[in-house]
Design goal:
By secondary structure, the protein is an alpha+beta fold. The chain has one domain: RutC-like (60s Ribosomal Protein L30, Chain: A), CATH 3.30.1330. The protein is built from two helices and six strands. The strands form two sheets. Strands 3-6-4-5 form a four-stranded mixed sheet. Strands 1-2 form a two-stranded antiparallel sheet. The protein is globular, with a radius of gyration of 14 Å.
Length: about 140
Amino acid sequence: MTVTLVNPDGLPQIDAYRQVSIATGSKLVFIAGQVAWDADGVTVGEGDLAAQVEQCYLNVATALAAAGGSFENVAKLTVHVVDWTPRKMPLLLEGIARAAAKLGITPVPPATLLGVAALDVPDHLVEVEATAVVD
């Protein structure tokens, strides 16, 4: 395995992600921020944060597959959410869970969540970018 995820002693044990990613593969893969577009460039889940998060994660999985990897290879995620407030956390987690169920994974690499004022298209509520290490 090219990426080992751990929650070391002395740091909070967070269920949604791991604190540390140890990468040993030979190929770095940088996935551009994925938004809730389908393959035709149509926004999925207009106004629905959970649906858009799900689509973003599915798009990240598609990009990873094109690079010869999967979510097991993700070393770091960055999630940008428009007008973030903690009240949006259940919708974010719901979208991640729905994508995880479709993909048969448990995506828990280290992640950074950033609240942003806007994204490239007004209908987009979230953007997810990934860094992966693939052998």
